[in-house]
Amino acid sequence: MSVHEGVPAFPAATILGYPRIGPRRELKRAVESFWAGRSTAPELSAVAGDLRERTRTNLAGLGLGTDDASIPSDFTFYDQVLSVAAHLGAIPERFAHLRGPDGALDLAGLFTVARGEGDRAPLEMTKWFDSNYHYLVPEIGPDTEFRLVETPSVEAFATALADGVVTRPVIVGPVTFLLLAKPSESAPEGFSPLSRLDDLLVAYAEWLRAFAEAGATWVQLDEPALVSDTWAEPSAQVSAAVGRAYQALSVDLARPDRPALFVATPYGPLGERFADLAATGVEAIGLDLVRGEAPAIDDAVRTALAGRTVVAGVVDGHNIWRTDLDAATASVAALRAALGGDVDVAVSTSTSLFHVPHTTSDEPDLPQRLLSWLAFADEKVGEVLALAAGPDAAGEAFARSREVAADRAGAPGVVVPEVRSRAAGLTEADFHRSAYDARVAAQDAVLDLPPLPTTTIGSFPQTSELRVARASLRKGEITAEQYAEAMRAEIAHVIELQEKLGLDVLVHGEPERNDMVQYFAENLDGFAVTQNGWVQSYGSRCTRPSILWGDVSRPAPITVDWSRHAASLTSHPVKGMLTGPVTILAWSFVRDDQPLADTANQVALALRDEIADLEAAGIGVVQVDEPALRELLPLRRAAQSAYLDWSVASFRLATAGAADATQIHTHLCYSEFGEVIGAIDGLDADVTSIEAARSKMEILPDINSSGFARGIGPGVYDIHSPRVPSTAEITDLLTAALASVGERKLWVNPDCGLKTRGYPETVASLENLVAATRSVRERLGAPVQG
Ligand SMILES: CN1c2c(nc(N)[nH]c2=O)NC[C@@H]1CNc1ccc(C(=O)N[C@@H](CCC(=O)N[C@@H](CCC(=O)N[C@@H](CCC(=O)O)C(=O)O)C(=O)O)C(=O)O)cc1
Ligand SMILES: N[C@@H](CCS)C(=O)O
Ligand SMILES: [Zn+2]
C-alpha cells in the first residue's frame, strides 16, 4: 500500500499561521499583568484559551473549514522556538531547577528562561529570518536530553476538537530548530547542534504520536531554515539532515501513528531542498511563491510527489498590500502545470500572518482610499479563499483586486515629481564625505572628549507617564503645548541625570517617540500609521509598523526642536538621534511597486535634510541608527552583495552631507553582525556602537580582522534584562575591548537604548559604567574628566 493512501485531503485554502497577540494586544496585557504579579497562572491560561477560541471562531466565520485542518493552531505564550524547547525539555542546565518532576516548566518557569533571573542569563534573542520578529536561541549540547515533557500544543488541539474544530497544529520543524540553536556553554569547541538530529527526532516522533492520539489529521512543521544557504553547515549536510529527518518522521513513523505532515518553507525560494523533501514521505510541501520562483521540477520529483499536495504560498504573509489575484492565479496555474495532474495544489499565504495586524476593519483613522489597498490577516484569509474558488466563483474579489491595482498606480502622492527629480539628480559625490583623518581633526577641534568617551544609545526609560501623556494627547485630553511641555520637562530631567552620572556625550532621551520608526513615519510625507495595527516583535513587545505607500519627503524638521532644547540645558555635546533609511524600511510595510533601493534613497534624502537642520541648530554629533541593517540581508548568499550595496549607499546618502566637524554615529543591535562587518565599515560612520555584551564581545575579533579603523563602542551593558552589571564586570569587558581595538577608537556605551528598562536599574548600571570607565582611564594614565 502507498504511504499516501487514506491520507485526509489537504484543505484547498489555508493560512500558515495567524497573529497570536490578539486584536487589542490582549495577550501582551495578560502576560505583563502576570509578570507584575497582578494575575495568576490559571488566569493567564484562561485569557490565552479565550483568545485561541476567538481566533478559531473568527477564522471559521471568515470561511476556513472547521473539519479539514484549514485553521492553524500556532499559539505560544512567548515564542515558537522556545515552545519547542519547552515541549522537548531542551532547557539549559542553569534553569534545571525550574523544571518539575516530569521535566516540564510551569508558566513562570517558561518566562524565566525567556527573561533571565539574577545571574542566570536568558536565552539569547535574535531576529527570525528577515523579519522584525525575534526568537529565543536554544542552547544544545552533546548531553541535552530530548523528551516530550509537556504537551500544551496537544491540549490546545484537543480543546478545539471538543469545540468542534479540527485545527492543524503548527510547530517549528526539527532541522530549523537545530540550525537556529547554538552550542550550549559546556559543548566542546566545534560542536554542531545539528549533530543531535537523530536524538531530537525520537522526541518529535513522540510529539507526533501524541497529536495522532488526540485526533489530529494534519500537523504543520515549519522549516524556514531550508530557504537559506547561509548556514555554517555545508549544503550537503543540510540536505542530508532534511532527508534523515523526514524519512524518520514520515516513513519510519508510519501512519496512523502520526498525522499527515505538511512541511512549510516560508521566507524565500526553496530551491534544491524541494527535491530533498519530495524524496521523503511527507504528505504536503509548502512553497513561498511571493519571495521567489517555484523550484525546478523534473520527472523524478513529479513522480515522487504523485498523490501528494504542494501548497502554493501566493498571498504575502509579510506585507499588507492586497494581492493581485490574477497574478497569483497565474502563478498557481504555472505550478500546477509543472507538477502535472497527479499532484494536488492548494493555496496559502507565503508565511504565517503573525507579521501583519489582525484586520483593516479596526482602522477608523486611515484614509478610505489607502485602506482599500490593504489586506491585513483577516482580509488575507478572504484572498486565499477567493484564489481557491477561482475567478468565476469569486468574480467580485478578482474585479476588486484589478480596481485596486489601477487605483494605487494613479493615486496622488504615489509618484511625486519633485521627489523623483531630486533622486534622479544625485551624483557619486552625494555619497561621500571627506577622508576620515580630516574629519577626526575637525571633530577633535570642536569636541573636547576624554579617551574612552561615554555615551548612551539614545532612549531613556519610556515611563508610563510618558505613554499616558501621549495617549491623553491622542484623546484630546491635553493640548499639544501641554504635551510638549511634559516632554521638555522629561528631557531636562534626562540631561540633569546624565550630567550627574558624568557621561560625556549626552542624549535627549527620546521621550517624544512612541517608536523609533513610527515617530519618523508620522512626520514624513508618503507614510501612514495605524491605530491598532499591532504586530509582535518579541515576547510581549509589539510595534505598529508604518505603511510606506508613496514618495517620501520631509515637510518640516522633525527632531530639531527637541535636540536644541536638550543642548540648551548643558555644556556637554548632545547627540542628535535619527533612525536610518534601512531600518525605517525594514520596520515598516513598504510599497511593493518600486525597488527598495529607490525608496531607501527617498528616505535618506529626508534624513540628510534633517541632519543639515540639526547642524544649523548647533548639534555637532548625530547618531543615525541602523539596527535592522542585518535584518534585510537576503537569506541566499547570491543576493547579498546587491543588498549591501544599496543599503550602505542609502546610509551614506543620508549622512554624507554632514560637515567634517560633525561626528556621525551609527548603532546596530538585535543581530549577529560578524558577517556584515565589511558593510558596517562601508557606512563610514565616525563612531559605531554595536551590541556586544550579551555575546561577551564575540564581535571584537571580526572588527579587528576587518581593519575597522574608526570609533567603535561595543556594548558593555546588556539592556535586555533588569540585571545591573557590576563595575568589575564592565571593567573586564572594557579591558578586553581595549586590548582588541585600542584606546583611540574605543567608546563606552550600553548595548542598546534604555526605553524598555526602569529608572532604578538604568541609573545603577550607568553609574557602574562610568565608574568602570574612570578606573580604566586611570590605568591608562589619562586625566579623569566628566
Ligand atoms: C529596538 N527594537 C525595535 C524594533 N522595531 C521597532 N519598530 N521598534 C523598536 O524599537 N525591532 C527590534 C527591537 C526590539 N523590538 C522592540 C519592539 C517594541 C518595543 C516596545 O517597547 N514596544 C512597546 C510599544 C511602543 C509604542 O508604540 N508605544 C506607544 C503606545 C503605548 C501604549 O501601549 N499606550 C497605551 C496607553 C498608555 C499606557 O497606559 O501605558 C495604549 O495605547 O493602550 C506610545 O508610547 O505612545 C510595547 O509596549 O510593546 C521594544 C522593542
Ligand atoms: N536610539 C534607539 C536605538 C534603539 S535600536 C534607542 O536608543 O532606543
Ligand atoms: Zn539598539
Radius of gyration, whole Å: 26 Å
Low-confidence stretches: none
User: What is the CATH architecture annotation of the largest domain?
Assistant: Alpha-Beta Barrel
Sheet with most strands: 7 strands, parallel
Helices, by number, come to: 27
Share of helix among residues?
40-55%
Cofactors, ions and other ligands in the entry: ligand LYWDKB7T, 2-amino-4-mercapto-butyric acid, zinc ion
Classification by helices and strands: alpha/beta
The backbone outline, from C-alpha atoms, is globular
**Spatial strand sequence of the major β-sheet:** 1-5-7-8-9-10-11
Under CATH, the topology of the largest domain can be stated as TIM Barrel
Q: What is the average per-residue confidence, as pLDDT, rounded to a whole number?
A: 96
Could you characterize what this model shows?
Strand 2 and strand 3 form a beta hairpin. It is built from 27 helices and 21 strands. The mean pLDDT is 96. The strands form 6 sheets. Strands 1-5-7-8-9-10-11 form a 7-stranded parallel sheet. Strands 16-18-19-20-21 form a 5-stranded parallel sheet. A 3-stranded mixed sheet has the order 12-15-17. The protein is of the alpha/beta class and 786 residues long. The chain is globular. The relative contact order is 0.09. Bound molecules: the ligand CN1c2c(nc(N)[nH]c2=O)NC[C@@H]1CNc1ccc(C(=O)N[C@@H](CCC(=O)N[C@@H](CCC(=O)N[C@@H](CCC(=O)O)C(=O)O)C(=O)O)C(=O)O)cc1, 2-amino-4-mercapto-butyric acid and zinc ion (ZN). Residues 457, 627, 667, 669, 752-753 line the site of zinc ion. 2-amino-4-mercapto-butyric acid binds at residues 457-459, 516, 577, 625, 627, 667, 669, 752-753, 755. InterPro entries: Cbl-indep_Met_Synth_N (IPR013215), Cobalamin-indep_Met_synthase (IPR006276), Met_Synth_C/arc (IPR002629), UROD/MetE-like_sf (IPR038071).
